Amino acid sequence: MTARISRSAAAAILILPSGGYLVLFFGLPLLLAFLGGFGLFTRGAETGFTLEHYRTLFGTRAYRDGLLFSTYLAIVPTMVSLALALPLAVALARTHPGQKLFNMLYKVPLVVPGIVAAFIVMTMFDRGGLAARVLEPIGIDLPKLVRDQWAIGVIIATAWKAVPFMTLIIGGSLGAINRDILSAARTLGAGPLATFWRIQVPLALPGITAAFLLTFIGGMGAYAVPNLLGPVYPLPLSVHMYVNAFERNNWGLVSAMGTVLSLISVAVLLAYYRATRGMRIAYGGEAR
Amino acid sequence: MTTTLSEPPARAPRQPFLASDGQWISLGLGVAFVVVLGLPLLVAVLWSLVDPAVGWFAPDIVPTSLALDHWQTALRNPTIIGALGLSVVIGIAVTILTAVLALPTAYALAKLPFRMKRAVELFVLAPLIVPGIIVAVGIGAIFFRLDLVYTIPGVILVQTVGTLPFMIRILAATIEAIPSDLIAAARTLGAGPWAIARYILIPLAWPGFIAGGLLTFVASFEEFEKTFIIGSPFVQTLPVILWTYLGGRGIIFPNAAVVTFILLVPMLIVFFLACRVLRDDVLASGMGKL
Fold first, then answer.
1. Which residues of chain B make contact with A26, given a CB cutoff of 8 A?
2. In angstroms, what CA-CA distances link A218 with A73, A168, B220, B227?
3. If you average pLDDT over residues B100-110, what whole number do you get?
4. Which of A149, B142, B262, B285 has the fewest CB atoms within 10 Å of its CB?
5. CB contacts, 8 Å: B2 with chain A
6. Is B249 on the interface with A (CB under 8 A)?
């Protein structure tokens, strides 16, 4: 009994440094942001419960559109990246000449900062960029791809960075699948496509959903890339947050925006936990 | 052989069991990497070499004249060199702080049974789940009161929030692989917690420290949003400088290209060193398997 108590105490002492750090510099700011959204403990403003900031957030067209746009920037690049990362992960896992080299090369964008990715998209796809210069003599006129309404430039830059990240996580899940299962599927007559859809994808779902979730959250909170490559209107909520915090000193509204974005993240996280559990059960039952 | 299966095999004769489609995969990957990775980086190199007297204008697919002028100006520019030095200093400070904070927790998560372990694991991962800008703006509100906004310590503290989860995950994965018997044996032989850390954990978890440390350094070196929000305009790391070249008043491509490579080259070296030390699955778990 004493051993157990002292062991719990030991665990508590060991967790204290980073746990305390995160409580102080992560938990507390989030808590203050949550309270600040309701007008409590905000910087420089009067203290008292109010729903004013949420009324402003949902009552102002630019902010409502910003919220929708943030969600768009979370969903679309993530879907595009997933569609590219899945086949890439499968291809990289198969034996082929130069496998080691390719396995190293694909990770390069992981360490390329988002701003550099944005710069690369500008040099390639902005007006007068390389793509336009190459295609113009052939008679192809590229539509506007940077600072355009559909944020194509943002999607390209985000996907460029997210594909290796997703591939790494999904590749880990694919690698963990017992090879005998794949061999069994093949001997039972499943072609490569059927093996992919009915064996590899379901078994790699935990990795796929984790990659999806993290890319989704990254896209929703992205500030630099949409600011450089995105349209003038709508602006994502992250940009509104920065402007209201440091240019207009309107911290209550900023807190409300932060809370809404966090809530969406948490909702997606909960959906993730439900989905992975539900899917695993579903596919587990389907495996005949 | 497939006729007894429920799905009618109406396709052409199957490929042999272990199809040697290796060459096709290599070809496809090679083309994809050249177009998606090689070409853009080559264009960035060309931009950094543009001759300022001639420029690089619309119909030209390749600049007509190359020069090292932009590199020379950049390497003589005290702002850029200062930013490089500052990025390195902040990166090292963040790495040390992260490692010191992470080791005890990683050990507890890897080796000790305790109640609410799952909750602690989730809380430690939580900074990955909340968008960085929310963390940064939230901390900004607190740092204003503590006079830490626009300071280097403030930037180090805010970056560490983002790097701590990776480090804890990677260290925990490494420590988990150390046999518990070894620690128990040391304890029966009279080693206290410090001796265990000094003579067993740290030496045996060394690859984790190296890899986690290198990745933390990379993460700090390339971090923009939190640094920008807490530090700018007074704390200028390389990504913040790059931002000023790309956003706001007029885009200066050649300057941006030079800074891009000053930023990118050290990072690629450090990252590939880290990849040599670290297996892919540990890297993936550090990167965010939940």
1. 126-127, 130, 135, 161
2. 9, 16, 17, 16
3. 92
4. A149
5. 189
6. no
Which residues on adjacent β-strands are paired with residue B66? B50
Please tell me the total number of residues recorded for chain A in this structure.
288
CA A259 to chain centre: 17
Residue A130 CA to residue B117 CA, distance in Å, equals: 53
Q: End-to-end alpha-carbon separation of chain B, Å?
A: 42
Cross-chain residue pair B22–A96, CB shorter than 8 Å: yes
Q: What is the pLDDT of residues A90-130, one digit of tens each?
A: 889 888 888 888 988 898 998 899 999 999 999 999 887 88
pTM: 0.88
Q: For residue B245, give Cα distances in angstroms to A160, A188, A196, A225.
A: 21, 59, 45, 14
Whether residues A21 and B268 touch (CB distance < 8 A) is answered with no
Torsion of CA A21, B169, A265, A30, to 10 degrees: 0
The size of the A-B interface in CB pairs under 8 A is: 273
What residues are paired with B50 via a beta bridge? B66
Query: For A172, which of B28, B60, B284 is closest by C-beta distance?
Result: B284
For the stretch B48-91, pLDDT in tens is 998 888 888 877 888 888 889 889 988 999 999 999 999 999 99
Q: Are B105 and A19 in contact (CB under 8 A)?
A: yes
Q: Round to whole Å and give the CA distance between A183 and B225.
A: 46
Any idea what DSSP says for residue A109?
G
Q: Which two tokens stand for residue A241?
A: 């947050």
Closest Cα in chain B, distance from residue A69 (Å) = 15
Q: In the Cβ-directed half-sphere of A220, how many Cα atoms lie within 13 Å?
A: 28
Q: Report residue B220 as tokens.
A: 């700090």
Look up residue B128 and give its amino acid. Answer: L
Q: Are A168 and A110 in contact (CB under 8 A)?
A: yes
Tokens for B229, please give them.
């929000």
What are the DSSP calls for B88-102, one per residue?
HHHHHHHHHHHHHHH
> Residues of B numbered 172-211 whose beta carbons fall under 8 angstroms of chain A's beta carbons: which are they?
none
Q: What is the largest CA-CA distance in chain B?
A: 77
Q: Nearest C-alpha of chain B: how many angstroms from A113? A: 5
Of B100, B144, B164, the CB nearest to A22: B164
Helical axes B39-48 vs A114-125, angle rounded to 10° = 90
Indicate the burial class of B7 (C-beta count within 10 angstroms; 0-12, 13-18, 19 or more): exposed
